[in-house]
Design goal:
heterodimer, A: about 90 residues, alpha+beta, five-stranded mixed sheet, 2 helices, 5 strands, about 25% strand, B: about 400 residues, alpha/beta, five-stranded parallel sheet
């Protein structure tokens, strides 16, 4: 089981949790497991073709999976995935 | 037998070599040691570029640590060439230095010729008091404080993130602070925008910020831009600043800022906040990744809410703004390890600060190219520009 850290904008889709567990042998499987349990995250994470959306970064521990093996990156027990869309809240209104 | 001082000088000068200022001028910056043997108060009024100060009275005891190599080429000078002649004789005949010459006519003749004179800046007594806690830190000292005073930092926004950053950079003595903000102080700002006040509701934020900054530190010059940053004004506004602090609240401007700062090679200290979470990174063009390397595309509107829509813990921008100010100081002083190539993630509720690595993208549409290859029309643009604008809304 891997731990997934959920960013603020996705927490509503996972019942408000900041961390969720999911299982899978690689990043793709883990994220699909997450989406299976929390259907609202499906379109937030994946395009219609099943690719990771380009505006979402996923990190395995501290490395962007795009510099590893993308969705095929192997995930072990105790690993942490961080889902990170950009935030632009700042000086605002 | 007594010798007049004039006769003594004549004798001494016949035993040493003198050099004309015009020849010394060619040697500036060429690795030749230039030593000013006047008193320190004279040195403080102006000296030859790159000269070291070793007053005549301290010559024998200090010259060895300043120039240990007896074979080094050394030029001595004083006000008119008298003290430096005596000093040259001492160094050659008593101390064994081999290549010492005295500059004819001293700095008086040098100035008459119109050559460049460097005037050392010193902190005033009041500044030594004001910044005393900085001066006590070895990594800062008077030299570091002077760097802060000479620095020019541009803040995008005098709001949630900009307020605390501006306060602490002003306190630190950053000499010039630019503020870009077209907004007016609103009551709802005061839950977090601590540079403003209840009395100033309704006043332009740049004016309010300036008032607070001057009350805190009159050393700081504030340059106000009461405008919204966009493609038509960005190059003109950001040019000439040493560091830019980004706390902008929308994606199009962040991407525009990124592209323009990569082109001008200006580092950006960037933070963003939402709810109880903050992100922070430092983008130093070509030394590390740029914003586009980190976030290739902005998210659609429903994944990019603003604080106005979703709220923010008041103290959170304070925390992130101060982390930004810290990175700015580190960049100015060139100390420590700025968060380049790292994205810091602060979770206020969990009280955790974690980080992820940010790599330069070899195919980045902006920073994989040389600065002058980035064209004006490309700044802030995405291939699917219309969809981007609509999405970012």
């Amino acid at each position: 089981m891997a731990t997934i850290k959920i960013p603020p904008v996705l927490r509503a889709s996972v019942g408000g949790e900041r961390e969720v567990s999911a299982s899978g042998a690689n990043v793709g499987e883990v994220l699909r497991d997450l989406a299976a349990n929390h259907p609202a995250t499906q379109s937030q994470l994946f395009s219609a073709e099943g690719e990771l959306n380009r505006y979402v970064n996923v990190y395995l521990n501290d490395e962007d999976v795009r510099v590893l093996d993308g969705l095929d990156t192997a995930v072990g027990d105790g690993d942490t995935l961080v889902i990170l869309p950009a935030m632009a809240g700042g000086d605002g209104r | 037998m007594s010798v007049s001082s004039a006769e003594l000088l004549r004798q001494i000068k016949s035993r040493i070599d003198e050099v004309d200022p015009s020849e010394v001028k060619e040697l500036i910056g060429e690795g030749v040691a230039i030593v000013d043997v006047r008193g320190s108060e004279e040195f403080a009024t102006g000296h030859l570029p790159g000269a070291k100060s070793i007053p005549r009275g301290h010559l024998e005891s200090r010259i060895e640590s300043a120039v240990p190599d007896r074979a080094a080429e050394i030029i001595l000078y004083c006000a008119s060439g008298i003290r430096s002649a005596y000093a040259a004789r001492t160094m050659i005949e008593d101390m064994g230095y081999e290549h010492v010459r005295s500059m004819k006519g001293g700095i008086t003749l040098w100035k008459d010729r119109g050559y460049e004179v460097e005037i050392p800046r010193a902190l005033t007594a009041e500044q030594r008091d004001r910044y005393s806690r900085h001066l006590l830190i070895p990594e800062i000292g008077a030299e570091g404080q002077q760097k802060l005073l000479d620095a020019k930092v541009l803040l995008l926004g005098a709001g949630g993130l900009g307020s605390p950053t501006a306060l602490y950079l002003a306190a630190a003595g950053v000499g010039t602070l630019g503020i870009v903000d077209d907004d007016v102080v609103d009551l709802s700002n005061l839950q977090r925008q601590v540079i403003h006040s209840t009395q100033r509701v309704g006043i332009p934020k740049v004016d309010s910020a300036e008032e607070t900054i001057h009350g805190l530190n009159p050393d700081v010059q504030v340059v106000k831009y009461p405008v919204r940053l966009d493609a038509s004004n960005i190059m003109e506004i950001i040019e000439g600043w040493d560091v830019i602090v980004d706390g902008v609240d929308n994606f199009p401007t962040r991407y525009l800022l990124n592209d323009a700062t990569v082109r001008l090679q200006i580092p950006v200290v960037s933070a963003s906040i939402l709810g109880f979470d903050g992100q922070l990174s430092v983008f130093k063009p070509y030394a590390g990744p740029c914003y586009r390397c980190l976030f290739r595309e902005p998210p659609p509107a429903e994944l990019a809410p603003s604080c106005g829509a979703n709220g923010v813990l008041g103290v959170l921008p304070g925390t992130m703004g101060l982390l930004q100010a810290t990175e700015v100081v580190k960049l100015i002083l060139d100390i420590g390890d700025p968060a380049i190539g790292r994205l810091l993630l602060y979770d206020a509720l969990a009280a955790t600060l974690t980080e992820v690595k940010v790599r330069r993208d070899p195919e980045c549409p902006i920073c994989s190219r040389a600065p002058d290859e980035i064209r004006d029309e490309e700044l802030g643009v995405f291939p699917d520009y219309e969809a981007f604008c609509a999405a970012a809304g």
